[in-house]
Fold this protein.
Amino acid sequence: MLRYTLRQIEYAVAIWDHGSVAAASAHLGVAQPTLSASLAKLEAQIGLQLFIRHHAQGVSPSPAGLRFLAEARNLLTHAQDLQRDTAAAGTAIEGQLALASFATIAPSFVPPLIKGFMSLHPGVTIRMAEGTQDELLKGVRSGDFDLALLYDVDMPEDFTVTLLASFAPHVLLPGKHKLTRLKNVPLVALKDEPFVLLDIAPSRTYFTRILETAGITPKVAFSSPSLEVVRGLVGQGLGYSILVTRPFGDHSYAGEELAVRPIADEVARGVIALAALKQMRKTRLVSAFEAHCIDYFRKIRT
């Protein structure tokens, strides 16, 4: 028999989300003593201290509490799914999806994915965030995000990965660079050229690995975690770069002309994927969004 109730779980997750009993009380419309008593009873029943109390500064989850609360949020989501299934005879997709995306992928793909999915399912709201791969994986593990859209590079074993599409990397050159005369650029032609590195994990590993596999030690002249700063530096004639993402229009933010050339060598493609935590059973909403992403990328590849 369960020793706690969904109501207790709901109150605990609300306190986590809002950072204090007082803020959760205001959000839920439930008296503070009721929330405090519910939390105390829940902690006693499960034998864990879920929160660390900070005088006049609210609460923060304990390490053990963070793991429990992430699972508790998933439990609430499934309970809400069950309730909606009963009310809508299993046909409606509703609720909030928390989607995180790798910073260089987000501008090109996340807006149309969100618009297309919300057009199909008006009862859905989507909360989105961007970041590095480490930030995305940490957020999925903590329960802050349901899914992460990222590159399938060095993925940890506690994640399930749904492959969506692969894209060939390209060489980015200043518009008037001597190598623009070539239709395809062999990597050996870049060995003495200054390199502008997109310095964000896992991109830095992926791009430097491409050069090193071809026997080239990249001469890194500049590096930046920003795709547009990298493109700007190349536009100024300060080096070449290797990228996967190609924004519409081959010009930098400042208007300099850029030249994109395919790589003549056989190189590893950049694979875009959806990542979810293995231990979390997928909700109907998550499964529907995953299917939407598969369909979207299938269409843009054809």
